[in-house]
Structures are given as C-alpha cells and as structure tokens.
Here is the input.
Amino acid sequence: MTDQANEYLKAVSSETLANFKAIAAAAQERLDAARTSGADAFIHTNTFNSGVAASKKLSAISATNVTGYRELTREPAICRVQALDEEGERHTYYIARKSTVALHNGSKLASYGSVVGRLASLTVGTEITLQIAGKSRHFELLENIKYQPRFKDGAWDSLNTTVQGEDFGPLTVESLQALLRGRLEEADAEALLDALLQGSPSDTVLEGLRHEVRRSMALRDQPILDRFQDEIFRLPLDSQLLILGPPGTGKTTTLIRRLGQKLDRALLTPEETSLVERIDHPQQPHEQSWVMFTPTDLLKHFVKEAFSREQVPASDARIKTWETQRGELARNTLGILQQSSSETGRFVLKASSHHLRPAVEQAPTQWFDALHAFHKQRLLGQLQQGLTILVQLHHVVGADLVRSLVDIMATAEGGDLMAAYRALDGLESQLIPLLKSLKEESDQSVRKGLIRSLNQDRDFVDQLAAFIDSLQVDDEADADGEFDDDAGDEPEQQQTSSQKAVQVYNRSIRTLARLTFLKRSVPKTSAAAKIRDWLGKSRLPLKDELHSIGESIAAQNGLRRFVNASRRSVSEVPASYRQFRREAVKANQWYDGQIQHPRHLDAMELDAVLLLTLRTARELMAQPFVARNRTEPRFAFLQTIRDRLYNQVLVDEATDFSPLQLACMASLTRLETNAFFACGDFNQRITQWGTRTHDQALWAVSRIDTRPITTVYRQSQRLNAFSAKLLEILGGDLDCRGQLPEHLHHTGVSPSLLEDAGDFQDVAIWLVERIQEVEKIVNIGELPTIAVLVNAEEQVKPMAESLNHLLEDINLRAVACADGQSLGVGSDVRVFSVEHIKGLEFEAVFFVGIDDLAQQWPDLFGRFLYVGATRAATYLGLTCRAKLPPALESMRAELVSAWS
Ligand SMILES: Nc1ncnc2c1ncn2[C@@H]1O[C@H](COP(=O)(O)OP(=O)(O)OP(=O)(O)O)[C@@H](O)[C@H]1O
Here is the structure.
C-alpha cells in the first residue's frame, strides 16, 4: 500500500470514528427525548380520529423507532460508500443496519434496506441506477468500506474493517484505532507477539479479505449482502422465488435479510405499502403475518439469533417445522385428523407407515394429479346423479328449477365447476326453501310411524337403543345415503341413548323409503337393513307410505347435492380420498403398503389431502362471487382457512420438503400477496421424499422464479475443491458448484482421514489430537465451533462420553446434542447425529464412521457425506471403522493424516 493510500486510510478512519460518535449521540438524544415525553414523541400524526387499529400500528412504529435508535447507539454504521453521480459529483453515505437518524455535521446516514443502501452491496467500479425520491439517479461506486463497530473504554473503533478504494484494496484493517495510532493496542500486545511468532504480518492493515473463524453456534452476522443476494432480497413482496445455490452461498442469510426488509414498513415501496395496507388485519398485522419452515428444530434454533439481529421477533409460532404446521392445520383448522380417540369418522395419522410405493413417494405429483382429477369427477358425478333424480321428479320440484339445473350442469360438465358453483350460489334462494318444506313433510310422515310403534309398545325406544348399541355397522355400506339428510352438516353432539336411537331410526326409515321408491335393494350390512329386520313387518311403515316418503326423500337427495356444493368441494376431500384409495388399491395402482384401516393415513397421504383441501379452498376464495360475500355465514368455512394464511411464507432447505409439502406451504400465502420465498440445493436433499428436480418445484409453485447464487462464503479453497470433487464422484449436479469470493485469503487445509479406527474410544483419541491441532492453529483464545457427526442417534451419547474422558484432561468438554433438539452451549465440542445438521455451520467437522454410513444408507450416503462435509468452514476430518468406501478411493490423494 502506498504512503498516499495509507494517509487517505487514516483520514477516512478518523472521519469514521468521529461519525460513529455523532450517530450514537444523535440516536441517544432521540432516546432521551422519548424517555422524557413518552415513546409517542416519534409520532407526528394525529391519532385521535384514526381508530384503535391505527393507534396500535403507530405505537408499533414508535416501539420500532426506539429499538432502532437503541441499536444505533450500539452499532452506528456498517458501511461507508462513495459514489459518483451522472453529473460527476461525489457522494458519501454512511449506511446503518436498520435505522437512520439525522446528523448535525452534514454527513448522510441511510439504512441498508433503503434504496441508497444498495450501494453497500456493490463492488468498486459497478454502476447502478437507483430510484431516489421518484427520480432515476445513476451512480458509479468509487469506494466501499465495511465496518464492525465496537465501543470499548469510552471510544469507538471498528475491527476487521474491509476497504476497497478506486486504486487500492481490498484491504482488511484490524483496528481503525490502531491504524490511527500506528500500532496495536497494549491489550493486544500478546496477540501481536503470537502473530509475529507465527510469521503473519504484524501490520494492522492486511492485503485482501480474511476468513473469520466461526466462534458461535448461530448463523453468522452478515449485515451486507453481495450484489446478487442484494438484488434478490429486494425483489417485490408479491414474488414467488426459489434461490438455488451450493452450500454456504448465503441462501439462508439472504432469506432472513429479505424478511427483515419486507417487514419494515419504512422500507417498502409505495406499491408494497398499498398492498400491505389493503390486507392489514388488526389481529395479525403485517409484522406478524409470516411463517418460515425449516426441516429440523436445530436449524430453527440456529437461525433465531439472525432474526433478532434483524429486529424481527421470531417465536415458535413463526419458525416451524412442517410437521408442526401440518398437525395444527389438519387437526385444529380443517378437522381432517381426529382430535380425540373417542371421535370417529376422521383420519388418524400413522406417521411411520408407508402406504405408497417408493416410486410414488419419490415422484408424487402424478399420483396427486390423479387424486385431484378423481375428486373433481366425484363432485361432478354427485351433481350429475342429482340432476338425473330431479329430471325424473320434476313434478315434485318444478320444471323451471330443473331447466336451470340442466343449464348449470352443462357448464360443470364443460369442466368449469367454479362457474357452476357461482350459478348455484345464485339459485340457493330457491333451492333451500324447497328443500326445507319437503323435509318437513317427510319428517312428519316418518315420525308418524315412530309414534305408531310407541303406541304399541312404550319400551320401543329403549329396546331400539339397546339393539343399536349391539350393532356392528359398516360405514361404507351406509355411505350411499350421504345426501339422504343433512345431519352430516351438523356438528356431532353428545346425545342420550334415546336421542341416538330416534336419530338412527329416522335415518334408517328414510334410507329404506328412498330405496323402496328407487326399487333398489338395501345393502345387507347397512344399519338400515339391520333395523328393518329388527323392526319386522308389523312395525315398518306400509309399502305405500314408504314409497311416498321415498319419493320426497329422493327429491331432497337430488336437491341437496346442489345446495352448499362449493363447500362440499372443500369438505369432501377426505371422503374423495378414501374412495380414491379404495379403488386404486383394487386396481393395484400407486399403493402397496399394508393399510391397516380405511381411516389410517401416512404422512404423504395427509399432505395430499391437505393440499387438495387448501388448493380447492383458494380457488374458491379467488372467485368474485365468494370474495364479494366472504363474510356471509355460508362462506364461514373459507374464513377459517383464510385466517390461517400469511402475508409471507419462507422455506429454508426447500429440497428436503416434498413437492406436495412445498405446494401446501405456497398455499398458505395470502391470495393478495402470494409471497413465497424458498431456498435450497438439489444436491443437498437428504430425504427420500424431498423435491428432486426443478420441474417438481415448478409443479409445486407454478410461477416460481428461480435465482441461482454461486459465491461460496463458508468454505476454504481446499474444502470447496474437495466438496466439488465429492459432488463429481457421487454423481451430483455439477452445475451447482460454487467459487470463493475474489480476494479472500482462505486456503485452508486438506481434509484429514483415519482408517481402521476401531471403536469410539480409539476414534476419540484421534479426534482429540485433531481438536488440539485446530485449537492451536486457530489460536483465538477459545475453541472455535467443532462438530462431531455420527451415523445414528444412539451413537451420540457414547461418542460424547468417549470424547469427554479425554477432553476433561485439557479442560474441554463434549456435549451430546441428542434428538436434534439442542445446539449445545459455549465452546463445547458438539456431537450430532448427521440427519439433524442441515443448514448448520462449524469451523471444524469430524464425520465418524463414513464406511458404516455407506453401508447403512447406500442411496443417501453420498448426500449425507456432501451435506456433512460442507458444514465445515476450514477443518474436515473423516474416520472409517475399516477402510475408505470404494466410491471415495479416488479422493485418497486429497486426504492427510494430520494437520500439524
Ligand atoms: N455476502 C456475504 N459475504 C460474506 N459472507 C457471507 C455472505 N453471505 C453469506 N455469508 C456467510 O456464508 C455462510 C453461509 O451462509 P448461509 O448459511 O446463509 O448459506 P446457505 O447457502 O444457506 O448454506 P447451506 O446450503 O449449507 O444451508 C455464513 O457464515 C454467512 O454469514
């Protein structure tokens, strides 16, 4: 670096530290003002007439402001940029992480999420056009300085500041204070001595960018994104995006930053603001209307801190696994699963069962499409049968009504069920009263028969109740009569045994009457047949009576199919599924598992039922005739679902979710926003059911826009090269390889290998030697993050125990992170089962028993190895109980036995 550059650097450092002080002081002034006059000091709007919701929103804004100012007192700025505008004028901006404050000294401070904040992501020499205050402004970036501010002993400093100027850099300045003083601080003299002894440059200014050792078990702070990530995170709120990229390219980082930006009303574009205001709901304001799905609980814990840096409160209600969300929806909201063991009729989830063929589980989209088509056909069939009945009974229901229904059915048969529902919605004012009067008449006639029997025998109802209790009824045999009465539309209530007996009597007589009228036989195993036989001729209504009741019931049956038809398209998904599966099993299609009970569902089947329910409900919600009448009681069933939708849905490690699960998640976005943001990597899929191809992703979210990112920020050059080779020999998608950022000095070391390792005690000896090496090489006064990965949950504790025997002697500890529930604390060596470590990052990773893994999971071995190996930033160790698996033999030359 030239003397001139050095002097310039000092001048800028001095300006920076003065500005840090000024920003922190200005922010403190605002905080003090708020304290004396109440937090509402920030609000200049008159709230008297704005209602409760508006004042709630404003107090939320003032709370955000307070947090923002407080953050500025801790971290005044994260960047300083200089840019040349189209008129040749130089502009200097300081950029803060989230908030801004006006400065008295003329310096300009913008937040990173603002339009000007984009300059922070550019490299020097890049040109950009920005829309500032409605005007297009063109800039060329001349200089970019990134800070890590620290306040120590009453003075501001910035550590590991990176600087890139027009004709110098990038450089890393260890400490701006030290640069200004020309030496490292006294307190750091020891570090300086160590650095000198290791032969590293003693100067506080280093050429290039340096790797930052991973010290904590949380997603690393990355306040400024690169240009490509930055572009993605600012895309409009109502986008559907899938970021694809190799491990460690900052996909999760980008996702969290995007959420932070899109939740901050001050940073939304005018279009986004008007969209958010249109859909804002006092019960679930925009700031809380989001959910993020992660495949494991561990990843959930790993990213939580990154959310709080974004000032986004992220409770368990916001970051979830799909299993949690699915359970809530299927059980509580949609009633697909039974809620208690006493309840009957609904499905029971058997999560560990597999009913579908493995090939269907791996590519379930065709199966789902077949189910969808079946459901539509079944709904159409119900209406067609209704029309056939009504055409014959036009003298009961009226010829005009039948003609209208004939026209509506022509539309439905043309494939447009939604248009048919719209027309039927308009016809309900005729259908419902007619149905009601027919039912009253037929109920009256059925009741007469009951009273007759009671007159003959006062114990009739008690005897009937006792008989009903002894009945073994076949639900399927009674399913035929589902439109006989509307009891199914009412919630099941607690009944006395007499009430139940009378209800079963009524239902059975109606069924018998309808089948008599239709001249059809009664299924032998049905309740109706059993009751008929029990009643005997003397207590059954006369044949003529049955015929006339039957005619009315048949007409009601026909009419009922046209009432609430749209609701049935949603509520009858489970019934369609049961029938679909019954027929497919008979036809030897799709299924081959043992289905113990017609009400049992495996996890993928539940996803399918859920998806079909959600998609049908959304299709209905999008219909103008529904949207117009959304508050009407007849559409209350949709409101329950609407209340469960989110302004934004985010998915991390999307490829571990099946296409059905991704489609369900996308179906949880508000219809107005459709804001869906997912990230993943097909090479890192470690579930059999996960999404395998881009086509599957497109099937799940039809308008998804895929954005690749390829700069690898996690791994050293050596490990990145090793990972790329691993991908090659394991047959991964080679287009998904990444490269390290320019100017990064992070060569690293080759992975190390132990063969013929023996039992855990022997492995532990080798691991502890390597851990000590890492500690020595890293030399940061504490242990960096270290993970030991084992092949199965039951190995976690024994491995941790074996390590602890040895680590104790050097004052270190290993912790068993069992069941993927805990991330461990402090600088312990963490032992995980490999299936839980998706998305995590460590400075060093040791993968124990990879030859056993190859035998245990021949299909997924390569993927587990790839995911495990790419968790490591710098140090990777592999151990084999016997020898390196044959698939990896060609990598032997890349492996060493130790690092020192
Ligand atoms: N623009 C950037 N500059 C420097 N470091 C970055 C940048 N973006 C991300 N990182 C760092 O890269 C590392 C990996 O980030 P992240 O976990 O978000 O990647 P990922 O693509 O989600 O990885 P994986 O596919 O393994 O889940 C983190 O330490 C993060 O801080």
